[in-house]
Amino acid sequence: MEFAWFKGHGTENDFVVLPDHDGTVHGDLDPAFVAALCDRRRGIGADGVMRVVRCTALGHNSPAEWFMDYRNADGSLSQMCGNGIRVFARHLLEQGLVEGPEFPIDTRDGLKFLSVDGDELSVDMGAWTTGTHTKVTANDRTWEALEVHTGNPHAVAFVDSLADAGTLIEAPHHDESVYPEGVNVEFVQRIAPQHVAMRVHERGSGETRSCGTGACATAIATAKADRESGPATYRVDVPGGTLHVTVSPDRTVLTGPAVIVAGGTMEWSA
Ligand SMILES: N[C@@H](CCC[C@H](N)C(=O)O)C(=O)O
């Protein structure tokens, strides 16, 4: 099978974009195929894969034309990807598949609204919730963490220094009764008022250079600690750049750069 691909990133959280407009090229993505594409030595290399498919091809009755079918690097599913959807939107804009500056994209976490302003793309991530105070352990150190859901599950731990978490080769240990489907873990250092820095270990992808839903979870946990009640905008520095998150009681809006950097065709035989 020969197929087209694109590669893009948002603050160095990188993705393979697979056009499959009518659902006839890839169908339901095989986890082994996704993992092979994401392999950094034998494949294209990425933190995740997004299939670009029309909602109608999936039988969805949606106000959006396009559905983001997102997979982690190990082939597992996630409901939402905040950097991925902004890269997905950049792809749609560059290929003339949507008209800006504002448009919806459907996801497993429901409809999201995108807006473009030059190099920056924003996504209204919709509702968020927080849960219990839990614990995460990495490299024999344990921290208190807040359970946050931003379409997908997160545990946010405040640290004195980002280096405290050590190498994140292994997934941090977490309470499986709180997170039966796994968790994305953020380690967060305060830098200044409304300015934090974060490292993340992503479920299904390992330590990455950025995570959009994780930046939102981080901003939510920080806003709660700050007892913010109205909209508050946080700068979130990640190893791959800077994101901004506006936290309101009923939603977050994530803003940052997103670019497509390469594309081509590839032969694949299973
Ligand atoms: N990098 C993403 C999050 C991708 C999904 C996550 N690994 C999960 O399994 O929930 C982002 O930018 O939000």
From TrEMBL:
The active site is at residues 81, 211. Keywords: Amino-acid biosynthesis, Cytoplasm, Isomerase, Lysine biosynthesis. InterPro entries: DAP_epimerase_AS (IPR018510), DAP_epimerase_DapF (IPR001653). Substrate binds at residues 13, 72, 82-83, 152, 184, 202-203, 212-213. The keyword Isomerase applies. GO terms for molecular function: diaminopimelate epimerase activity. Its EC number is 5.1.1.7. The record marks 154, 202 as: Could be important to modulate the pK values of the two catalytic cysteine residues. The keyword Phosphoprotein does not apply. It comes from the Bacteria. It is found in: Cytoplasm. It catalyses: (2S,6S)-2,6-diaminopimelate = meso-2,6-diaminopimelate. PANTHER family: DIAMINOPIMELATE EPIMERASE, DIAMINOPIMELATE EPIMERASE, CHLOROPLASTIC. Catalyzes the stereoinversion of LL-2,6-diaminopimelate (L,L-DAP) to meso-diaminopimelate (meso-DAP), a precursor of L-lysine and an essential component of the bacterial peptidoglycan. Homodimer. This is Diaminopimelate epimerase.
